[in-house]
Amino acid sequence: MSCPSICKWAVLMLTAGLAACGSSTPEVLRAGAGSPPAMLPKLASCRAADAVPLPVQAGLPTVSSGVRPGPALLYAAAISHPQLLNHHPRFVASPILVQGHEAYVNGEYLYQDFLYDDYGSDVSNDDLNETGITVGNSDVNGLEPRVGDIDYPTNFARYGGNAADLVEFRIAAGASDTAYRISLNTLLETDSTITAIAFDMDRSAATGVSSLSRDPGAPFPGTDEVIYLWGSGAEHVKFGAGGAMAVTPLAITTDLVANQQWVFVPKTAHNPMGDVAITVAVGLYDAATGGWLRPASAPTATQPGAVKDGRIFDPNPAGIFNLGFRFDEPVTGQNTPPDTLQSEFIRSKQPTRYQHVIRFGDLATGVNRSTVPASGTILPIYASRFPLPPVGEGRDLAQNDPVYLGALQPYTLYIPSTAALGTPAPLHWAFHSNGQNHWQYNGSQYVQQIGEALGALVPTPLGRGPRNWYDESAEADTFEVWADIARRWSVDANRSASTGYSMGGFATYRYASFYPDLFGKAFTQVGPPGELIWVPGAAPTGGASTLTNLILENVRNIPFLNLNAVEDELVPYPGPLAQNLGDPVNGIDGLEQLGYRYRFQSYTDAEHYTLFLLDNFPMATPFLEDSQVDRNPYHLTYSVLPSEDTPQFDIVHDHAYWASGLKAVAAGTPEAPLKGSIDAFSHA
Fold first, then answer.
1. Distance, CA of 376 to CA of 412 (rounded, Å)
2. Which long-range contacts (CB under 8 A, 24 or more apart) does 92-99 make?
3. Distance CA 272, CA 174 (A)
4. Average pLDDT, stretch 552-566?
5. Predicted model pTM
6. How are the residues of the chain apportioned to helix, strand and coil, as percentages rounded to the nearest 5?
């Protein structure tokens, strides 16, 4: 593979923004408190019009005067979302907000599950993904959000495509009872979901029962007791000799705003002590039988489906969509969905593979500990202020994007080992490819080269879906993730860089162009300059206004390193060639004509996936090492494209460096987007 390159090198940059947003206090609806409306807002949307100035926050850019860089959204206060709050005094610990981990906190136990991982059984038992990676006996295609194949009933108003998605499981021990709480990602109707908490009190599969009294279609060997919660009711069952059952009805509280359900089980019926093995399973409630909805061959309005590629592989899949206590999912170390192993063990009907020992003695003594690591790859959760239509929660895999509608959103963050030293770390973004997800780079050399080698935090936002092209809700997601990181980790606001592969490279072009005062360096790999396909002489297939070449003059103060494949079948080479070297035939100026600092490296024998599979970018470390941002350049060039503003997400591109309040004052069309430009010097 030959690598001829054309080089111009670069320097630095950054500045600052404004604003804050308040939150609303939602009405709490409880089971038995009357008939809830079909839909309730979990949180009133928060707009920049409600903004008030905020104190400067460590980890975010600051300026001595004027508008801070980036959108006001970056500086907005964290919201107190009801799904992350405690609504009963028995539960007081703050949530972990890192997926796949647990903590004991002053007499409370918390387990944080993965978001949007409720896909049930891998009924097709696929072995390989498109790149031939194998994990266990599962399909681990990183281009898919899931391995499990179970589809939700089509009644979106009831199930939201996500009603069995466990977010958090809690236990709080008391003097006369034990409190249990389930938090769900989506809960649109009180009785849409059923949860089983199965107890193996003596940790022996030889005692107790194997079949639950409300059977999900899979055995739970060794079960001595079980608690069921189905929103409108709950019960505790103790199994005795010969199959005898002692059933204790329980009062349940279902909070449709917080998506939480909790029960208090008296110690006269249930008195766990010492080390107890517990399995938590979640599915859909069948009101007709009082049990679990079981998948049929194809989904209907009232029945989940279990069809893969038009074929039925398992005629009798279990009704379990989600299991708790999955600490060994390979997602933090591989490009694989977070339900990879879960789907395998639901398919093989082994839910107790995720049986986990809870130390009730530690709850009684108030021990404090957590499994959240101080470094490495983690999957944090944050609460967005933008729940999306139609119901403000749920998941719609049928639409291209956004897919993930709820307020709770995941992302990936790599934390370098040097973070333990307490020195604020640079922030080097790694935006994911089209069709990929926020776990795309997990375990890769790429992350090691831009994270560990440089001591940088490396976030990858989901963007509310795998194909959202980093505008609208995906752009809002990026800046909400940025703000969340700055609140929770020590960030050096003066050093940041944007990187990404394919669509992630487009994000790098886009964000560096619209926010040149937020990034010090930019590194793209096979990145298209416009949304989808751009061949000069025609507009990008994603729309003329998405072409970052229209505002490429904005990156005057940002050096670029751009790697491209000459034989790229998805990002035709003439587009990146024009972005870098220009295309005089079509009247296109590139970085070369603008006189900017860049390195354009072409791989003549490579196609679109070559560099991704190679996963080795030794040139990245020395290039990104100095990602210092220039907050106050003497020469400012900035163009605005109003058609790319999305004020509904508090995104307006109207300022950079020491110029703000910029507006274009002519007419535009979809074919010729309205553009306004400023070129100014400061002699201060």
1. 10
2. 93/170, 95/168, 95/381, 96/370, 96/372, 97/380, 97/381, 97/382, 97/488, 98/372, 98/378, 98/379, 98/380, 98/381, 99/338, 99/378, 99/379, 99/380, 99/381, 99/410
3. 11
4. 98
5. 0.90
6. 20, 25, 55
Order the strands of the 598-603 sheet from edge to edge. Answer: 5-7, 598-603, 560-565, 521-525, 491-501, 425-431
SS (H, E, C) 582-606: CEHHHCECCHHHHCCCEEEEEECCC
Token pair for 367 = 């021990």
**Strand boundaries in 293-450, DSSP class E:** 320-323, 356-359, 369-370, 376-378, 381-383, 408-415, 425-431
Beta-carbon contacts of residue 225 (< 8 Å; ≥ 6 apart): 198, 199, 201, 236, 237, 238, 239, 270
According to DSSP, residue 401 is labeled S
Non-local CB neighbours of 252 within 8 Å, separated by 6+ positions: 31, 229, 231, 232, 233, 234, 261, 262, 263
Q: What is the pLDDT of residue 24?
A: 27
Q: Which two tokens stand for residue 262?
A: 């909790």
Share of the chain above pLDDT 70, in %: 89
The predicted pLDDT at position 380 comes to: 98
Angle (CA) 393-398-399 rounded to 5° is 75
Residues in the chain: 684
DSSP annotation of 480 reads: H
Q: How far apart are CA 309 and CA 328, in angstroms?
A: 28
- Name residue, tokens 């072995």: 127
Distance between CA 507 and CA 531 in Å, rounded? 9
What is the tens place of the pLDDT at every residue in 86-118?
999 999 999 999 999 999 999 999 999 999 999
Residue 194 burial (CB < 10 Å; 0-12/13-18/19+)?
buried
Q: Which two tokens stand for residue 654?
A: 């109207």
Distance between CA atoms of 640 and 674, rounded to whole angstroms? 8
Interval 597-655: pLDDT, tens:
999 999 999 999 999 999 999 999 999 999 999 999 999 999 999 999 999 999 999 99
Which amino acid is residue 354, in one-letter code?
Answer: Y
| Cα–Cα–Cα angle for 291, 292, 298, rounded to 5 degrees | 145
Q: Tell me: the pLDDT tens digits for 35-60?
A: 333 333 333 333 333 333 445 678 99
CA pair distance 573, 567, nearest whole angstrom:
7
CA 482 – CA 512 distance, rounded (Å): 15
